[in-house]
Each structure stands twice: as structure tokens, then as C-alpha cells.
Amino acid sequence: MGWKILSKKFLNNEQSVFEMVVEAPDMAKKAHGGNFVILRLTEQGERFPLTVADYDVEKGTITIVVMKIGKSTTELSLMEPGEEILDFVGPLGKSAHIEKYEHPVVLVGGGVGIAPIFPQAKELKAIGNHVIVILGARTKDLLFWEDKFRQIVDEVIVTTDDGSYGKKGFVTDRLKELMENKPLSHVIAIGPIIMMKFVAKLTNGQGDLPKIPTTVSLNPIMVDGTGMCGGCRFLTLDGQAKFACVDGPDVDGHNVNFDNLIARNSRFQREEHERLEKFEHECKLLAMADKAEGECKE
Amino acid sequence: MRKYQIIKTRTPMPQQDPHERAHNFSEVALGYTEEMAIKEANRCIQCKTRPCVKGCPVEVPIPEFIAKVAAHDFEGAIDKIKEKNVLPAICGRVCPQETQCEAKCTLGKITGSRPVAIGRLERFVADWEQRVKDIGEFDEGTCVDLSGKTKVAVIGAGPAGLTCAGELAKLDYDVTIFEAFHKTGGVLVYGIPEFRLPKKIVQKEIDNLRECGVKIKLDAVVGKLYTLEDLEEQGYKAFFIGVGAGLPIFLNIPGIELNGVLSANEYLTRVNLMKAYDPSYDTMVDSGKVIAVLGGGNVAMDSARTALRLGAEKVIVVYRRSEKEIPARREEYEHAVEEGIEFHFLRNPTKIIGDEKGFVKEMEVIKMELGEPDASGRRRPIPIPGSEYTISVDLVIMAIGTRANPLLTQNIPNLKLNKWGYIEVNKHMQSSIPNVFAGGDIVTGSATVISAMGAGKEAAKGIHKFLQGKLDDS
Ligand SMILES: Cc1cc2nc3c(=O)[nH]c(=O)nc-3n(C[C@H](O)[C@H](O)[C@H](O)COP(=O)(O)OP(=O)(O)OC[C@H]3O[C@@H](n4cnc5c(N)ncnc54)[C@H](O)[C@@H]3O)c2cc1C
Ligand code: FES
Fold first, then answer.
1. Is there an atom of ligand 1 within 6 Å of B440 CB?
2. Which terminus of chain B has fewer CB atoms gathered within 10 Å of its CB, N or C?
3. CATH 3.40.1120.10, domain B249-402, yes or no
4. Distance (Å, rounded) from C-alpha B230 to C-alpha B223?
5. Minimum CA–CA partner of B357 in chain A
């Protein structure tokens, strides 16, 4: 038993980000923007969360977009269509809040966070919102899904840190321009914690600009994803501890202690690094063995 | 008639040496040999009043099975036990016998005499069965013919759900268990450590269930992936909810957000379910030299002893009451002491202090004294003002209890819950929704394996009556 990978596609030349479509018909019926799945690849593997990047009820599929950052995501990147993911649990977490707003809604996707804003954009658009999307990446190669967004939303703004594509700058620069130009009803930001922190800072009404309700998507370390371990807890600004997997992952961006979130995500930094090095070393050995075998055959 | 001689002392349980076992995850108590079991069984005086049976939440015919052991009829003994208890290898290991059957034992009432070691005998008999009837790998496909049978869904594969499923299968239902995790067993696999309850024992009991035709759907979080209505559409006529009380409680003190503060649930899940103690597994677990565990129950003992086995130099259990009030199984507490765990009684943490990187560095604790008994009958701990002091620690593990997990219950409209979020049921374990039954920790709050099993069994009877249209409304 497992969940079959139907397709895999790298989204950049560097092959660090990939899109995977997984057959999961029951989950597809229930999934919404804001949800996540927990995966486990092998008997020895860990459980790790990935946000739902798209779902298709008719085809019975869930799409995930993954950046290779650790051992598990690297292992996943090595899997091919036809192979099965051992465990694929979900849809977990609260579904994104979708309503018809008076003014435009802005969705900000940074880096691999571009993917999870897609289902939310789709759902917001479906009920008649004016949807603006800001897609940001370090550089052109890391940007993806622009066309996919263009087909469903009203405006797409592209920005890269190095100016290799779209306007040069950060997503916050583009958001600020929008805020200065027109009233906005809601902002949704998904991406690196630091990006979400600065988006929330821009929209919290404490600067010159008006306050705009802002949702961010938290990505803490998780185990079960169902509220039973508390590993995913985060602090609100008023000092309460909440569980991202059940109280989120989408939460009020103006009530998150981002610094604590960053600190908590470094919990296993040392171990993770050591492990990845070991894994890469093993991969190299394997590749060498393969090569040696190949040479022998020749 | 046979004459019984009073033998006051119990046949000791062979154990791994405390120094050795503090560094491995193998089972601590090694189990009786046949000779030991027969010797211990012969201590039972077969009293007419059979008080032990009343002490057992599922009323195992204790004197009868012990008589069979004494007569060297282990097959007969296991049959006797299984009339009432389908998971004896587990119960023999984890039941709090000292407050149940053994507390009632007539032999134990005699001055200077200890009760018959009922739990150890139960375990012996169950292990004997697993040894001789080694069924080997479970073979999917040898399944029982289920066509045309009424479908029942069991949600949660802990002891309550497993027992309910087993009973329903015996009553000829087509039973499917839906389990959120990638493994069945509930607390038996994610909570209770290998050194106390080897996982292969749990697995065997589960294989037995599957041989009776019970189907298991893993990775299925009911309330998320399926609602009860979805399952009704799939043809399920009745439900049993046994989702446990999984939501960990964190002390409401400054510093709980620090790295190195974790719930016992997380700590134990990483180690037991995800096997973080085994380097060939990927899951990581926080490590430290000095580890403080808060609480005094089984969960605290399991966490402390796990920490020791993972290489901690010093493990301190911090408990707000005194030694007398420790709610853990006596044997586990004694084992913990033998292994060198330090106990700081009448202490309560007030603050956890971190370093500049957000990792735990110290913990401030306050001394407590015992006041008047509270609602639970235990004396209430009261802080002594000004008695705070700090200790250096690397990890703080909170084992101070759990709450009802609302993940499923909040997604069932009209399901009546009590004020703590536990499901309300009648004596048939039926909830406010007629075809929904519930039992185990999600009804009682954290309790015991055996009480969860008892509830699962009652619920199976209730479901059977309900489906036959014979359940009187009460
Ligand atoms: C560390 C620890 C040590 C313990 N030691 C002892 C002991 O020595 N002796 C003793 O008698 N008792 C002990 N207990 C208590 C005992 O384990 C519990 O009382 C018992 O397991 C409760 O059984 P249950 O079936 O109600 O729930 P659980 O064992 O909690 O099982 C519930 C199951 O439901 C699953 N689930 C939850 N939500 C969903 C959902 N929405 N959909 C599908 N599945 C779901 C969970 O993943 C889990 O597998 C201990 C508990 C812990 C945590
Ligand atoms: S991941 Fe375990 S509680 Fe959220």
C-alpha cells in the first residue's frame, strides 16, 4: 500500500525545486488551500509536512511542490513516477478562510511559497474576488508557475531580488506600492519566515500605511500533524502557545512571534546538517559503485 | 480436597541488570520460566470468594486460569484468559495490577504475605501462547469471507479500538479500523517504550485481529480525510470512536516555547514510533546531559527512563506531590529508582530559562507542601513562597497529562461532549448519536489500557444490540 507518484517535474535548471502529482482520490475531495500533508518515504524515514499546492477532484490528485533542503526532500526528489510514497496523510490543518472581499486580495508567494498560494488564489477567484498575486524569488531560475497563475487571477506581479526577471526588489517593495495605490481587503503571504515577518510588519498598521488583515502560513517542525505532540507550537505576540498543525498552519500574521518561530526551526539544525552530509556521502558512494559496476560490464 | 499451604513471598521476576538495562531498549522484565510460573500459580489458595476477579475491569477468570497453570495446562489457561481478555500479553505487562486484581487478593491480606503475582502469570501464559503458536508473518489474502456482512467502522487503533474491532469480528461483522498514524496500537506503540512493552508483542496481537478478518486503513485521519457521513455513504452502519486523549498539556509558565522543552508525547513518539534511538532511522530527538521530566505518572517514568537510555548523564523527575502520591505503576517507579533516576518530590517548576539562541539552560523550581485533600482525594500541593531556586537542565519534558483531542469530535455535529471535551456515553457506550459509540481515553480522559479494552468490549456488545434493533434506550 502506498500513494502513487503520477508525475515529477523540476521547476528550475538547478533542479532544486520540483512539482509532484500524487494519486490520492479521497484526499483530493477534501483538500483546500491552507491544508498540508505529512509524508513518510521509507520505513526508516521521518514524517515531514508539505503544503498542498493544488488538488484535482476529477483526476483524484494532489500536487506538491518541494524544495530539496534536507534528507527527506532530497530522497523524494529522487523518486520517479510510478513509484509509491509510503505514507501520505491528510488533508491536515485548517483550510484557508475564503470570503468575498470588497477590495482586492493580494497573495504574496516567496520562493517555494509560490506554490501553496495557488489553491487559495483559485478559491478566492472562484467566488468573485479581485485577486492580485505577487511572485517573488531570489533569481529568475527559481521562479515558477507564472503562467499557471496568469490563467486564473486578475494581476500577476513578478519580482526578483537580483532583477534577473520582473522588477528588481523584494515582494515587500511590490506590496508597498500596491498598498500606496489602492485599498486592499486582505493579504496572504507564504514564503520564508523572514519574508512573512516583513510582510506582516508592513501591513500591521503601525507604520504610515493602513492596516490590512494578513494571513501567513507557518512551517514549524512537525511529527503527527494532528495536535498530539505539540512540537509545532508557536508563540503569539500575547505569549500564548498554539499548535500550528491544528490552529493553523494559516494564522493571523499580526499575532505571531516570528523570531521564536525562526529559533524553533533551528532545533535540529546541527543534527540535520550532519545527517545530510552523511546521506550525500552515501549517495556519492552509491554512484561510484554504480559507475564501477558499469565500467566492469563494459 | 487439596490442602493449600500459605507461601508468603512471591516468585521473583527475572530482570535485566539495572546498570546494563539503563543503556539499552530491550525489555526490562524477562518473564517467568515454566517452573517459576507453576511455582507462583501454586501460591494461589483458590479461595471461594474470588475477590481478584472483581478487581479486574474485564473480569478475567483469574483463579481458573491460575489453576490451569498450576496443573501445567497452559493451553487451558490461555483459553480461560481469552474468554475475557483478547490482549493478555499486553495487559500482563502494563496493567496496574497492584491497584486492581492483586489489591484484592486474599493472600495479600494475610500479614506479611504478598498477593499472587497475577500479572506476571497472565504475561507468562500469553507469551507461552505466542511462542508455541508462532504464526509467523501475517498473510494478507487468507482473509475471512466478509461478503454480505454489516459494515462497522472503528476509529482509532488503540487498545479500545482494537478490542472493539476484535469483538465485532467475532460477532461476524465486516470491521474496518481507521487509524491516523502509519502504525496500529495507539499509545501501545507511540507511548509505551520498547523496554516495557516490546512492539513485536503488540504487532502479534494485531496480526491475530487481522486473521479474524478485521481490515485496517492506516494514514486515515477521520474528521479530515473522511467525515462520519462519508463513511456512512461508504456503507458503514455503526461507528466506534476510540481516538484516545492525545492533546498534550504544557505548563503555563514562561519559557515553554524554548528549544528543548517538549511534551512527553512528542519525546516518546519520536523515540518509540519513529525509532529515533536507532541510528538507521531518520527521525531525530533532542538530546541533553541533564534532563528534567515533569510529572509522576507512567508517562513521566517512561520519559525519564527513555532519556536515560538515550545517554543522559542525569535524569530528574520533578513531581509536585510526595512519593506516596506517585500515580505511576509501582513497578515502573521502582525500576526507575533502581536505574538511577533522581526524584525531586514536592517541587514545581515556575520558569524555564533559555540561552541567547533559544535553547533551554535552566529551570526555576519552587518547593511545595501538602495541604488539605482535593476533589481527587489526594492532598493538594501548595507552593512555599520564596523557596524558588534554579537548576541547570538541557531538556524539560512535560508529562503532566493530556486532554481530549478535538480534531474528530468537533467535526461531528450533534455529538454530545462533556465540559472537558470528552464524549458522553450511556452504559452501552452509545453517544448522543444512536449509531455512534465511543470508549477509552476519549470518554474517560487518560486512564488505563485495560479500562480502554473493557470499554471497547462493552461498545461491541452495544453496537451488536443496536444493529439488531435490540438496544433499549437508556
Ligand atoms: C507513555 C504512556 C504510558 C502509559 N502506561 C500505561 C500503563 O503502564 N498501564 C496502563 O494501563 N495504561 C498506561 N497508559 C495509558 C493507556 O495507554 C491509555 O489509557 C490507553 O492507551 C487508552 O486507549 P485508547 O484506545 O482509548 O486510546 P489510544 O491508545 O490513545 O489510541 C487512540 C488511537 O486513535 C488514533 N486516532 C486519534 N485521532 C484519530 C482520528 N481522527 N482518526 C483516526 N485515528 C485517530 C490515534 O492515532 C491512536 O492510535 C499510558 C499512557 C502513556 C501515554
Ligand atoms: S505536529 Fe504534533 S501537534 Fe502539531
1. yes
2. N
3. no
4. 10
5. A263
- The pTM is what? 0.91
Taking only residues 241 to 270 of chain A, the set having a beta carbon closer than 8 angstroms to any beta carbon of chain B reads 241, 246, 257, 260, 263-264, 266-268
Ligand nearest to the CA of A227: 2
Domains identified in chain A and CATH numbers: 3-92 (2.40.30.10), 105-265 (3.40.50.80)
Which ranges in chain B are annotated with CATH 1.10.1060.10? 18-133
Give dist(CA B235, CA B151) in Å, integer.
6
Place of cell 532544486: A16
Whole-complex ipTM: 0.90
Residue nearest to atom 3 of ligand 2 (CA): A227
Give the class (CATH, top level) of B18-133: mainly alpha
Segment (H or E) for B211: helix B199-211
With a 6 A CB cut-off, is A28 part of the ligand 2 pocket? no
Q: What is the pLDDT of residues B185-208, one digit of tens each?
A: 999 999 999 999 998 888 888 888
Residue B331 pLDDT exceeds 90? no
pLDDT digits (tens, 9 = 90+) for B97-150: 989 999 999 999 988 899 999 999 999 999 998 888 765 444 444 456 677 789
What is the tens place of the pLDDT at every residue in A20-41? 999 999 999 999 999 999 999 9
Please write the tens of the pLDDT for every residue from A102-116: 999 999 999 999 999
At B432-446, the pLDDT tens digits run 999 999 999 999 999
Q: What is the DSSP string of B339-404?
A: TT-EEEESEEEEEEEE-TTSBEEEEEEEEEEEEEE-TTSSEEEEE-TT--EEEE-SEEEE-S-EE-
Tell which CATH classification among 3.40.190.10, 3.40.50.150, 3.40.50.10540, 3.50.50.60 matches the domain B142-246+404-467. Answer: 3.50.50.60
**A157 vs A5: CA distance, rounded Å:** 32
Contact B289, A253 (CB under 8 A): no
| pLDDT higher than threshold 90 for residue B466 | yes
